[in-house]
Amino acid sequence: MSDKNTNGSQDCAIAQLAELYEVLERAAGLRGKCFLKLLDFSAEEIGTLLDLSAVLKKLKKARIPHRIHEGKNIALIFEKTSTRTRCAFEVAAADLGMHPVYLDPKSSQIGKKESIADTARVLGRMFDGIEYRGFGQSIVEELAQYSGVPVWNGLTNEFHPTQILADFLTIREHFGTLKGKKLVYMGDARYNMGNSLMVGCAKAGMDFVACAPEKYFPSKELIEKCESLCKTSGGSLSFITDPSEAVKGADVIYTDVWVSMGEPDDIWAERINDLLPYRVTKKLMDAAGPQCRFMHCLPSFHDLKTETGAMAGRNFGIDCMEVTDEVFEGPGSIVFDEAENRMHTIKAVMAATL
């Protein structure tokens, strides 16, 4: 490579690293803060995290090192298994110069032989940050209360904030903006994904629609909180039981699996019976319009190529669940852009809060 090309590459790297430090300076107020749920963050702070994610993504694509947390150590507590969340945290930590320690359900005494508070105080003296993926939101909140270091929510029953950052970065990449975009969530909106998408949309000034039978709508308390947020952001909330009405003009149709980790097997028949009319099909995508994109936090049962999918096929005579393979593999699907962005947005959260 010529000196001219070398100097050009160096100048580009310097400019991109300067951009990184400029955004980190804007995020200075987040240092030392835990990332437990989006309700704890302003729309401006969420926007800054998305800006930081975009810069870190550019650095990653350009193979420009950004080991800004060299020598730090983080604990990754996984009471529920994961592909995307674990890989995203481990790769992001390595990129930032950190050493991650993975604790699976058999590698920790948390909540069994040792209380949450005691575990938090032990880990907080050994690690610079702690990720928790598991069950009740109260657990991650207690870890944050006692650890003395930033704690990040990798998923609880109630909220999944790192996923929403990845979703919003993906929407920004495809549409250029979040404000005013219509997102329709199809299916069970009572738990982490429905809750977190509703909160995120309310913060960002988006139009959120939950489409499901009424018993699958979010809690009244959380709806009231989000309605209050919409008054400031200009967003809106709708709760509709008719899929064909709900998707009209949608920019994004989003869905998730119908039975979550940790739920009993005996609810499969009820969920499939209730939610089959809310499966995302090409007909629904076409009804939304050519602008519409399909999103899913994954894993997805769009065919019979998994143990769970095959079980559903045998027991219930269906060839897919929450989305058809035609939509999942179709031109409107951006699920793998979304999956990749888990890494960039999780990296942004750690970079900003440590």
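Second entry:
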Amino acid sequence: MANQGVDEVYILWCSEGMSCDGDTVSITAASQPSLEDVVLGLIPGLPKVHLHNKVLAYSLGGDEFMEPFFKAARGELDAPFVFVMEGSIPNENINGEGFWSSMGNHPDTGEPITIPQWLDWLAPKAWAVVAIGTCATYGGIHAMAGNPTGCMGLADYLGWDYRSQAGLPVVNVPGCPVQPDNFMETLLWLLYHAAGMAPVIPLDDKLRPTWLFGKTVHEGCDRAGYYEQGDFALDYNSPKCQVKIGCWGPVVNCNVPKRGWMSGIGGCPNVGGICIGCTMPGFPDKFMPFMDEPSGAALSSRIIRQYGGLIRTLRSITNNTVNEEPKWRHNKAELTTGYDPRYIP
């Protein structure tokens, strides 16, 4: 199936993990491509897409909404499906007498069906499995130290050696919430791959798309020049580098400063916010407390202050020089440009 083009694809989207539905809301702002363009078949070469997401569904839930999920679990869908997981996966082995999270009721028993049960049914049959948002990719907020749910990311539950029907590992698109175009671009690649028109999606060792998460926030940040000059903001009203007030941008893999958030506008450092590392597997625990200078940054910023101070001084001298017009631009009775007419007959 991995090498054969298909004409139709189902997208079964479960946001019933430990989730706020923020990723679903976020992708409604996507424009490269938009979700509407994908679902309406306006992009050449894509398979026909059947989207089933509770927030974006036409139905009001119930049996009509749940039927494609049950069909997929029974292997009765008439086309391959991409399973999208939103929200972290709770450990239902430690749920006491209840359950942490569920979707729908079992047709035989009437009991709620837990998210791990759905994963056990659907993941082995899925053409591809995508984790959207940091909760689904690495556990996120719900998996932080001291939580009672034992939450984890999708690859933690399925195994980092999991492979789908297409031979793909879990595809992680982190972000809290996910940057909308990052997810839609990833989905677009998978759909073209399903159609036989794209190679296997390139992922890093954390299963993130390499072209989206191969650089750091710092490398694409408008404020990076201030860091190089050792010129740091001391409060949130400054346009300068925010490392001293808590920004983790120099070490976080994310493209938001370059891409913006909606239609190229916004993104955390672009609008005065610090980077708190929400696309990283160690989030949030390894990046707290958020408003303090990051560990390790004190030494590097002290070093860059000395280097940057010298650079700023030298550049200031050069700036003063090139910020003046040449002296031969005047309205006097003599020509002082250095023009030499000796080659003119």
